[in-house]
Amino acid sequence: MIKPDVYTKTARLSEEDKDERYHFEKDDIYLIGSAEHSLVSKHMDEVLKEEDLPLRYIGYSTAFRREAGSYGKDVKGMYRVHQFDKLEMESFTTAADSFKEHQFLIAIEEYILQSLELPYRKLLKCTADIGTPNARGVDLEVWMPGRGSYGETHTADMMTDFQSRRLNIKVKTGKDTELAHTNDATAIAMPRMLIAILENNQQADGSIEVPEILQKYTGFKVIEKK
Questions:
Q1: What is the rounded distance in angstroms from the CA atom of residue 53 to the CA atom of residue 101?
Q2: How many of the other CB atoms lie within 10 Å of CB of 198?
Q3: Model's pTM, two decimal places?
Q4: N or C, fewer C-beta in 10 Å, the chain?
């Protein structure tokens, strides 16, 4: 959960965003739509030391979204749901390292998909498709046979100093002080990753081959059709 004033400072609670959020009026508090909303405010009103950067966090949380604009779209199956679990990455850097960090987080996302041997494409989003605080946004979309199209599984957002200016997060660089830069990116978002893994590994007889990298965790190689 997150307080409205902090949520507003993250620039993820515009009037348009509010349609997507769950709000408890009695407590005046929101359910988060992603762990980044809590992680980026972790250092609110702080001055970070340059030698401590980059600061990188990963948050595991349940995310809640109304999906208010999706009426009649993806209403069946697991692709678009109101509650799901997600691993989200958040980092704090200097301005000089901001874009490099953005690229690094995208590389982690691609490494995950490549390790799972999933077919995907990378999209540089246009201005109309990125969030209010974003200076740059990249989506990774995995081919989903059941949809007959690619479906978004990962997003990477580069905010520069948009959020840190509002949250008052600064960096001490020598004798000077500058605003920190923030980046966030998806690590694993369920259940869309389950869709991608199951559909891309289903065999003609209905069984599902478990990706090799996951077999040490599952303890088996195939999910047999019952």
A1: 11
A2: 17
A3: 0.92
A4: C
72 pLDDT band (50/70/90 cuts)? low
Nearest to 124 by CA among 81, 101, 156: 156
Domain ranges, ordered by start, for the chain: 32-223
H/E stretch holding 179 reads strand 176-179
Contact 1, 29 (CB under 8 A): yes
| Residue type for position 185 | A
Q: How many CB atoms lie within 10 A of CB 43?
A: 19
- Nearest Cα residue to 122 out of 144, 153, 91: 153
Shortest CA distance to 43 belongs to which of 186, 179, 188?
Answer: 179
What CATH architecture does domain 32-223 belong to? 2-Layer Sandwich (3.30)
